[in-house]
Amino acid sequence: MPKPAYLTADVEAFRQTFRAFLASEVVPHLPEWERNQCVPREFWLAMGRHGYLCPWLDEEYGGSAAEFGFSVVLTEELGRTGHMGLQTGFAVHADITVPYIEQLARPELRGDWLRGCTSGEVLTAIGMTEPGAGSDLAAIRTTAVRDGDEYVINGQKTFISNGMECDLIVVVAKTEPAAEPAHTGVSLLAVDAGRPGFVKSRQLEKMGQHCQDTAEIFFEDCRVPAAYLLGEEGHGFRYLMQNLQRERLMISIAAQTAAEQILDKTLPYVKERRVFGRPVGTYQHNAFKLVELATETEMGRTFLDAVIDEFVAGDDITRRVSMAKWWLSDLSNRVAYEAVQLHGGYGYMREYDVSRDFVDVRAMPIYAGSNEVMKLILARMMGLAEPDQD
Ligand SMILES: Cc1cc2nc3c(=O)[nH]c(=O)nc-3n(C[C@H](O)[C@H](O)[C@H](O)COP(=O)(O)OP(=O)(O)OC[C@H]3O[C@@H](n4cnc5c(N)ncnc54)[C@H](O)[C@@H]3O)c2cc1C
User: Fold this and answer.
1) Nearest CA to ligand 1 atom 36
2) CATH says 9-123 is which class?
3) Annotated catalytic sites, by residue?
């Protein structure tokens, strides 16, 4: 089978190097980080020292102007550790939030921030979701009101990955709350942690993805210099729509990797475990189930690789990445469900990795635009929904 264009020899060689780094410096600590529900700063600093944080950035910012294949490998290999929280926290920083800073921050601020992002000294997060507005982002209530040469931010954000540990957050806020239509009043601002009024309220208790912190954040008359506005006032929604495609691609990669690695560990188990005198995987019902899931997983890989190549080529991937995101995150959940079932009672025990996979993948159909939102986008593109239909 021909290889996708993004998987160059350099990228493949890099995979081996990164895998070895993870095996020696990260994997031994994962159970502890999972228990603590937080990844220590040493992880980010070690990643930074080795050039693994945002290698796609230019050299002046500490990157290596690396092709996108390197980012794919980083996300995949973090997922293959079987600790998807680690992968989510990484993607939120390196491939979801930092691109906003790179594209939209004022030149006088961009350099210092980005150099911190590649060294691991500046960890980023993105604050879109609020208690009353998740899928319907235009309904956010956080405001950023201009006051002289500052903005005053007030509001609440929730479910923020890296929220407790972040040093810099990109906040989605309304600079013109009364604007009609509502999304035209939305802007993006950067806020650095430690500023009065930026309150990291509490770490949320999740069902899974424990190798990552998820937090609730308040802004209480939090003042930032006007220069912290990202891009232009009122253009926030446009920037989000552009960058959400990359975010959905990263989640598609994560979901595909999850399906692959869960199958990889389930196959040896069902060949080994004997029930009524035979390996449990040889019963036709179970064998066919695994054959079906393996077929879908290979088809998923082919489709995903094609979408990655399209992204690298600069094509508009909105339609196909929306398909990839809902279908692959659904697939990873079906694989995890069957993997637990095939492990029997052991699958329900924490000492078996599939039990963690089962709860870790559950977030994938929900975040980065829920799967229902993906289908809404696709329905609109197929002429099956009104443009303003919820
Ligand atoms: C682990 C985790 C990490 C996260 N990290 C971040 C982060 O870093 N930053 C951030 O800003 N957010 C983050 N989120 C939030 C996530 O993006 C939201 O949870 C998601 O957008 C859904 O919003 P909601 O939870 O408000 O659900 P709601 O919008 O209330 O939706 C509830 C249900 O209704 C469905 N639905 C909504 N609209 C429609 C419709 N028109 N038709 C049919 N069904 C519909 C949804 O799909 C969902 O199933 C994270 C969430 C989780 C679980």
Assistant:
1) 372
2) mainly alpha
3) 247
Residues 170 and 167: their CA atoms lie apart, in Å, by 10
Question: Which atom of ligand 1 has the smallest separation from the CA of 369?
Answer: 21
The C-alpha atoms of residue 325 and residue 253 are separated, in whole angstroms, by 9
The residue extents of the domains of the chain are: 9-123, 125-234, 238-381
| Residue listed under structure tokens 């600790």 | 83
- Indicate if ligand 1 lies below 6 Å from the C-beta of 363: yes
In 3D, which of 204, 25, 23, 54 has the Cα closest to residue 117? 54
Q: Is 85 in the pocket of ligand 1 (CB under 6 A)?
A: no
> Tens digits of per-residue pLDDT, 228-277?
999 999 999 999 999 999 999 999 999 999 999 999 999 999 999 999 99
Contacts 24+ apart (CB under 8 A), 64-69: 67/6, 67/8, 67/10, 67/11, 67/312, 68/6, 68/308, 68/311, 68/312, 69/6, 69/7, 69/8, 69/10, 69/11, 69/312
Alpha carbon 275 to its chain centroid, in Å, reads 39
Tokens matching residue 190: 């950067």
The region that residue 217 occupies, defined by phi over 0 for left and psi between -120 and 50 for alpha, beta otherwise, is beta
User: Which CATH architecture is the domain 125-234 placed in?
Assistant: Beta Barrel (2.40)
pLDDT one-digit tens code per residue, 47-104: 999 999 999 999 999 999 999 999 999 999 999 999 999 999 999 999 999 999 999 9
Residue corresponding to tokens 């992968």: 87
Please say whether the beta carbons of 144 and 151 come within 8 A. Answer: yes
Q: How far, in Å, from the CA of 206 to the mean position of ligand 1?
A: 14
Sign of the CA dihedral 79, 257, 265, 11?
negative
Predicted TM-score of the model (pTM): 0.97
CATH class of the structural domain 238-381: mainly alpha
